[in-house]
Specification:
By secondary structure, the chain is an alpha+beta fold. It has 3 domains: 11-75; 91-158 and 188-244 and 370-393, no CATH class; 253-365 and 401-408, hypothetical protein PF0899 fold, CATH 3.30.2320.10. Helices cover 37% and strands 21% of the residues. It contains 11 helices and 16 strands. The chain has an 8-stranded mixed sheet. β11 (334-335) and β12 (338-342) form a beta hairpin. α5 (130-143) packs across α7 (216-238). It starts with 10 loop residues before the first helix and ends with a strand.
C-alpha cells in the first residue's frame, strides 16, 4: 500500500479482526481444558494436544497483532497536504519544506536567529516545525509501550533534576490550644535525569522530494516514529544509562521483604525458571499485594507476548481463566482485572529472570523529553538518496522506587 495515501481501517475490518481474535481465544480455552483434564487423569499431556494448543496460542497472538495494526491504522492521520498555517509557524513550515526538498537553509537560519537560538547544534541540523514534533511525540505514545503508561515531562535543558521526599515531615494531632512541637525535617533525595541523543536516518529519493503532493515533514515524522519507539522501548526497560535512558530493570533488585529506597523490590516464585507448579495464581497475587494500595489503583502489568502465552493457561481456584482478552478493539487484555501492557523487550520466563513487572508506572518511571527535534539534510553520503539525520533528546529513570515491583522466576 502506498504510505502516502489517506487510508484508514474501516469499522468492519476492525470488527472482523476482533471477532477472529475472540474465536481463537474460545478455541484455546477448549483445548487447554482438555490439556488440564489429561494432566489430572494421566499426570501427563498428549504431545499432539500440546502442539495444537501452541498453534492456537500463536494464532491468538497473530489475531491480536492484526487488531492492533488496524486500530493504529484507523487512528493515523492522513498524509495529504497539510492545512494552512499562518504567522511564524507558517513561515517555519515553508522554510523547513524548502530545506528538506532543496537544501535551502537560508529561511530556517534567519528564523532561528530571530528567535535568539543557534542555527545549528554541534551535530548540525534545524528544528522541525511544531506540528511535526507533535506528530512524532503523539505517535511515540501510541507505539512505545512504556511511554504510554509512564510519567512524561518536557524540559528545555540537558538535565532535569527533581527532589523527592523519601520520608515526609513529622505530623501529629493536637488540640486547638495545644503547643505545636517542631516537626522533623523531611529526607530529600535529588533524582537526576540527563537527556541523551536518539537518532534515526530515513532516506528519500529525489523523485519523492520533488513530488509536491507529498507532505515531507509528515513523511519524516512517520519514518522516524517507529525507529524512535523501538529504541526507546528497549532503553526504558533495560537501558544501562550510558548514552541512553536507564531502564527500570537496570536498578539493583532486592527481595521485597528487604526493600529500601534506591532499589527495586521483587517477589520470587520459589521455582527456578517457572511459576509455582501447584499454585501459580498465588505468585501473581503476591506480586500484586507487594505494591501499596495507593499505587494499585493505577497499576499495569508489563510483560512480553511469550509470558502472556504462559499465563493464558492458568485458572484460578474457581476454574476461571485469570487472563482475559480485551473487551473491545483497542483495549488492553487484563490479568486479575488489571490491564496488561505488552513490551517485547521484557525478558522471557527463564531461570532467575525478571519477566513480569507490576505497579504504577506513571508515578514510578519518569521519561524526560527535551523540546525540539532536529533534522540535518545529507545529500552526499548515499547518493542518489538524500538522508535525513533526525535527532531528539530523551532521558528516563525511576522516580519512585516504591511504585514498581518485579517477579523473579527463581528460588529466592
Amino acid at each position: 500500500m502506498d504510505k502516502f495515501e489517506n487510508k484508514s481501517a474501516s469499522t468492519v475490518e476492525i470488527a472482523d479482526a476482533f471477532g477472529d481474535f475472540m474465536h481463537a481465544f474460545e478455541t484455546f480455552k477448549t483445548e487447554n481444558d482438555q490439556r488440564l483434564c489429561e494432566i489430572e487423569a494421566r499426570k501427563s499431556v498428549d504431545v499432539l494436544t500440546d502442539e495444537k494448543l501452541e498453534r492456537i496460542n500463536l494464532a491468538i497472538d497473530d489475531h491480536q497483532r492484526s487488531v492492533d495494526a488496524l486500530m493504529l491504522k484507523a487512528a493515523r492521520p492522513g498524509r495529504g497536504v497539510g492545512g494552512v498555517v499562518s504567522g511564524v509557524a507558517g513561515m517555519h513550515r515553508d522554510a523547513f519544506d524548502g530545506y528538506v526538498r532543496k537544501g535551502d537553509a537560508g529561511g530556517l537560519r534567519q528564523l532561528e536567529e530571530k528567535a535568539l537560538s543557534v542555527g545549528t547544534d554541534p551535530d548540525g541540523g534545524y528544528l522541525v516545525p511544531n506540528e511535526t514534533e507533535n506528530s512524532v511525540m503523539s505517535s511515540l505514545k501510541g507505539i512505545s509501550p512504556i511511554r504510554s503508561i509512564a510519567g512524561v515531562r518536557q524540559v528545555s535543558g540537558a538535565v532535569f533534576k527533581k527532589p523527592f521526599s523519601i520520608s515526609g515531615p513529622g505530623t501529629g494531632w493536637v488540640g486547638e490550644t495545644d503547643a505545636r512541637p517542631e516537626t522533623s525535617t523531611p529526607t530529600l533525595a535529588e533524582l537526576t535525569f540527563p537527556t541523551m541523543e536518539l537518532y534515526a536516518m530515513p532516506a528519500a529519493t529525489p523523485t519523492l522530494l520533488d513530488d509536491a503532493v507529498v507532505n515531507i515533514d509528515e513523511w519524516i515524522a512517520g519514518e522516524v516514529s517507529v525507529a524512535f519507539a523501538e529504541q526507546e522501548g528497549a532503553a526504558f526497560i533495560s537501558g544501562d544509562g550510558v548514552n541512553k535512558p536507564r531502564g527500570f530493570l537496570d536498578y539493583t533488585k532486592v527481595d521485597n521483604a528487604s526493600w529500601s529506597w534506591g532499589n527495586v523490590g521483587y517477589v520470587a516464585t520459589g521455582t527456578d525458571g517457572a511459576f509455582d507448579a501447584s499454585a501459580p495464581v498465588d505468585d501473581l497475587i503476591d506480586l500484586v499485594y507487594s505494591v501499596k494500595a495507593g499505587y494499585r489503583s493505577n497499576a499495569h502489568w508489563v510483560m512480553n507476548r511469550a509470558t502472556q502465552a504462559e499465563i493464558r493457561k492458568i485458572k484460578d481456584a474457581d476454574g476461571n481463566y485469570i487472563w482475559q482478552p480485551s473487551a473491545a478493539p483497542g483495549a488492553a487484555p487484563t490479568l486479575l482485572n488489571t490491564a496488561i501492557v505488552e513490551a517485547e523487550d521484557m525478558p522471557d520466563i527463564a531461570s532467575d529472570s525478571f519477566a513480569i513487572a507490576y505497579g504504577d508506572f506513571n508515578r514510578g518511571y519518569l521519561i524526560v523529553d527535551r523540546l525540539g527535534i532536529r533534522v540535518l539534510r545529507d545529500p552526499y553520503s548515499s547518493k542518489p538518496y538524500v538522508l535525513f539525520y533526525t535527532t531528539k533528546r530523551v532521558g528516563g529513570g525511576i522516580q519512585d522506587f516504591d511504585a514498581i515491583k518485579l517477579m523473579k522466576f527463581g528460588l529466592s
